[in-house]
Amino acid sequence: MQDLKKVKKQGWNSRYGWPATLLGVITIGFVLIVSAGCSRNQSHSNSSNSNAINKNLIERFEADIQSGKSADLKAILIPENSNMTITDQTIQDLIQYVKKHPDYLRQQVSILKEQEKVGHAIDLRLAKASSTKKQPSKKNNHEEKLDLSVLSKGDFSYTHYKGKPYHIYMRPHQLHLNFNKQGIKLWINGKSYPLQAKAQSFSLDNLPADQYTIKVQKKYDYTTLTSEKIVNLFNNNNQTAPSSIDINLTGADFHIISQQKNVNILMNGKDLGLKADYADPTSIEPGPFFGPFPVDQNIHIQGEKTYPWGINKSKTYVITKDTLVMDLEPSPFYSDTTKKQIVNTINTFAKQRWQALTKQTPSLLTVATSSAKQTIETAIQKDEAQGDSVIGQLLGTKIDFDMAELNQVSSNQYTYRILVQIHTKEAKIKGNKPSAQLNNQKEGVFLTLCYDTKLKAWIITKIESANYTDRTSPFIVSTDFK
Fold first, then answer.
1. Between 102-131 and 88-100, two packed helices, what is the crossing angle to 10 degrees?
2. At residue 345, does pLDDT exceed 50?
3. What pLDDT score does 433 carry?
4. Integer Cα distance of 196 and 184 in angstroms
5. Is the Cβ–Cβ distance between 213 and 228 less than 8 Å?
6. Per-residue DSSP letters for 48-108?
7. Residue 362 and residue 373 in contact, taking contact as beta carbons nearer than 8 Å
8. The pLDDT value given to residue 90
9. pLDDT by residue (tens digit) across 97-138?
10. From CA 276, how far away is CA 328, in angstroms rounded?
C-alpha cells in the first residue's frame, strides 16, 4: 500500500515526465517557427512597402521635369544637407534649363540609374554578410566589381540612409568669386551680399545646381563701373571644389584735351563737373589721365563751352578700350542757333556788298568795319575812274565751316576767319552802253569776323581773296538768293 502510494505520488512526473517535456519543447518550437515565419513575412512586407513607396522614383523624377510638374518635382527632391534650400525658383530654373539642354536630363538620369544599380548591389552584399555574421569581402572573384565612383557623380544622388528608403538628393555646390577692384558692391541673383571695403574675393556654399547671375559694381566720382556674368553650376562634376570665377571691372583711362580753355566734359549729355586739359601748344606734357570710364557700353564724351554768342559743343566720342586721347575742342558754331548768327551776317554782307558795287555806294555796307570797307571802296573808285559799272544779279553763297579758325584775342574778344564763295551773274559796262552778256562768277574770299559784345553781333573786319574749290560737305552751308 505504501509502495502504491509512492508510485501514485511519483505518477506523471516520474513515469511520463520525459514524454511531457519533449512534447512541451516541440510545442514551443512550433510556435517559435510560426512566429519567426510571420516575422519574416512581416519584415519582407515592410521592405516591400518601402520599395513600393519609392518604386520608379527615377522615372517619376524624369517625367516631372519633362512635364513641368514643379510641385511634384519639389516633393521628390531632398537637399543633401540641412544648410541647402530648394526653393520654388530652384525647381523652375531646373525645368527651364532642361528645356534648353535636354541632354543634361538624359545624362543625370543615366547617372541616377547607375547609382541605383550600385546601391542595391551594396545592400545585397551587406545583407549577405550580416546573415553569415561576416564582414563583406573586399575582394571576391565571384562578385561583380562595382564602380563606386558613380556615387559621387552628377548634380543628384540616388541613395538612402540607415533605416530609411531610397530618395533623390540634390547635391550642394560652392561658388568662389575673385574681383580685381576693392570697395565693390555684389549681387547674386538680385540679392545683395555685403563685402568688406578691401575684400577682393567672396565664397558661397550649399548652393543647388542652377544658373547664377553675378553682378559687381564700383562707384567713382563721375561714373560707375559695372560687370555682370552668368555662372552655370549645372553639371558641375566636382561639387566639393568651389567654382572659381573672376569678375573684373574694366574701365578706360585716357587724356582729355582741348585747344581752348574752360571746356566742360559731358558724359552722355551730363556735365561731370570736370574741365578738359588745356593743350598748350608750347608744352610737351601730356596732361592728367581721366577715368576710369566704362568701355564698350555706348558711353559718349563731349566738350562744351560757353562763348559770348552762346553755348557750343565739340564732336562726340564713344569710349572704347582703345581710346587714348580725346580732343574736346568745341566747334564755336556747333548749335544751329549760333551757326545761324554767322550765316546771317555773311549773307547780309554779300547782299550789301553787291548793292554797294552796283550802286557805287560804299555806305550801304553796314556790317563791316571801316578797314573792311576799304577794299570795296577801292574797287568802286577804280570803276568810277574808268567809267565802268557793274550790272547783274547776286545768286548765292557757300560758307565752309570746315575751313574756319577761331582765335581768342582777349577774355571776351574772339575773331573768326572763314572761307566763303560768293556766286554772281555779272558784267561790266561803260557809260550808257546797252546790257552786256552776263557771266557766272564764283569769287572766293576769306572773311574775318569779330564778335561785338556790346552789340551782341558779328561784324566783318577783314576781306581777303582766296581760292574756293567746289565740294560736298555737311559743314558747308549753301544759300540761294534766286
1. 110
2. yes
3. 67
4. 9
5. yes
6. HHHHHHTTTHHHHHHHHHHHT-HHHHHHHEEESSTT----HHHHHHHHHHHHH-HHHHHHH
7. yes
8. 95
9. 999 999 999 999 999 999 999 988 888 888 888 787 655 555
10. 7
Rounded Cα gap, residues 478 and 363, in angstroms? 27
C-alpha dist (Å) from residue 359 to 348, 388, 463: 16, 11, 20
Q: Which has the closest alpha carbon to 260: 274, 281, 287?
A: 281
Q: What is the largest CA-CA distance in the chain?
A: 198
In the structure grid, which three cell numbers stand for residue 62, read together?
Answer: 524624369
Cα radius of gyration (the chain): 49
DSSP of 106-164: HHHHHHHHHHHHHHHHHHHHHHHHHHTT-PPPS--TTSPPP-GGGGG-SSEEEE--TTS
Contacts of 289 (CB under 8 A, 6+ apart): 253, 254, 255
**Going edge to edge, which strands form the sheet with 201-207?**
201-207, 173-179, 243-247
* CA gap 319, 449 in Å, rounded: 36
Distance of CA 125 to the CA centre of its chain: 56
> What confidence tens digit (pLDDT) does each residue in 400-455 have?
999 999 988 887 788 999 999 999 999 888 776 666 788 999 999 999 999 988 88
Q: What are phi and psi of 129, to 5 degrees?
A: -65, -35
